[in-house]
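Course exercise 7: structure representation. Students receive a sequence record and must write out the corresponding structure in token form. The form below is the worked example handed out in class, using Zinc ribbon domain-containing protein (77 residues). Read each field label carefully; the graders check that inputs and outputs are placed in the correct fields and that the protein name is recorded exactly as given.

STUDENT ID: A-19
EXERCISE PROTEIN: Zinc ribbon domain-containing protein
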Amino acid sequence: MIPATTKMPMKFECTHCNKIYMHQYSINAISFYPTCPDCKQAGLLLGTADSIDIVKHPKTFAKTLFKQISHKLGKSH
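STUDENT ANSWER:
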């Protein structure tokens, strides 16, 4: 089960290599756009991930969500 305080990841589209990638939600997401993990070009913000993204991009979604949860658990200690 996903903790209630965990935000959905931010979803980006890389127009250079035509891929969707996700990055954990952050307050400064408006001023910081993470680069594509494949080509290192800045992507376009598509918003937060939707429930359909779990089906369309399960590996990317799970990896991003796992990073966010482990980061939150690390901060609580």
